[in-house]
Amino acid sequence: MPDLLIRAGTIVTEHGMMKASILVEKGKVISVSQSQDTLRADEEIDASGLYVLPGLIDTHVHFRDPGMIQKEDFLTGTRSAAKGGVTTVFDMPTTQPVVTSRQQLIEKIRVIQPKATVDFALYGGAGVGNLSELAGMAAEGAIAFKTYMVAPPSQRTQEYAGTYVTDASSLYRVMEQVKTTGKILCVHAEHDNTIQYLITQLQMQGRHDASAHADSRPQFTEALAVSEALVISKALNARLHLLHISTREAVDLIRFWKRNDPAVTAETCPHYLFLTKEAFKEHGPNAKFNPPPRDKFDNEALWVGLADGTIDMIVSDHAPHSKQEKDEGQEDIWKAPPGTPGVETRLPLLLTEVARKRLALEDVVRLCSTKPAKIFGIYPMKGEIAEGSDADFALVDLQREWTLKSDELETKAKETFLFDGWKVRGQCVATCLRGKLIMKDGRIVGTPGFGHFIRP
Ligand code: NCD
Ligand code: ZN
Ligand code: ZN
Predict the structure, then answer these.
(1) Model confidence over 228-254: pLDDT tens digits?
(2) To pair with 340 at 20 to 30 A between CA atoms, which of 30, 41, 58, 113?
């Protein structure tokens, strides 16, 4: 007998919806069928009235483990994911030590796997100092590589060590080498030189209010870095993914570029779709993240970019910091670390836009599950509900109206959350990973260590 039957839900794929039942055996979908009555399994979940989405993928999280577990660890991070309908996360390499060698990748897997409540993939960090390590990390299963185009602030150089470049020739060398591994290079596109200049100027003017952060990294600094990365990737014919795009300028550039180079991909995050610089007034240093919050017209341009395919996916860039660390920026914004948590709340925020008809539910599936799986080479194992796919599901109640509350979050960074008190419509009521329930009615029921390291 099959292990699990999800009975009579509305299955959602990027192409449409269908009322059907799903049978699962050994963690895989074995059938999706509309004739329901005769189906039997050891365990049954009644999904009538619910929508069944392929488990969400969040290809951009910082779970801080090992090395900075006061901010988050792989247990709290993956519990937070499960709560938000996310069954696969891709963790960034900026843990301690930074993942810049094969040995460090192996060691990181060893440390975090026993805490994993959802499946995970890992990025390797790439910089000019570890070009000879890239092949080894790729062979060990790194999903892709990550490079910052901007230097970290002086107090965080350790945290980003070896994974940033600050000039075009270094980016060229990194991209050239990443290409030989067959992997994608993901870049944090902010232009170093201009930003360092503007920071110095603002500091000389005595600015340390929260919005000075946004003033030090204006829209054009993203556009400059994006164009540099695009031009170099074209010259090398290398695969480029642009992380957390936040500006109208960048959307325009990417749209133009994709006409001739459709292999380029890009992502944005809820905080760029829903927040503006206004957030500094209410949230102070908690609203400090990189790239910074922008203007209303940037929000609008991103929505247009999502609708016309310029932006391929929505990720959280879950970047937790403790309240104490953030509070250091209350008097002086330069002292606060950038980043905001969000792996748990991407789905309800987007479901609310489904209720408002800005998105279709199929778009949510495409942007948060299917497209990421396809881009990073884990489709159709992930990102799909079909025979042979992993039995990863997010069961969603579209009618439920509720309020996002900081103190109900699983992340350690709950006190820094920016959407506290937001009224939302639509809730993930159960999450299933490879045929096992890992979240039910807001309670985590998954076992740490059930999450696997996945390879492309
Ligand atoms: C991230 C972090 O804290 O690790 N912060 C952020 O503001 N986005 C780093 C990053 O993704 O750039
Ligand atoms: Zn980044
Ligand atoms: Zn990030």
Answers:
(1) 999 999 999 999 999 999 999 999 999
(2) 113
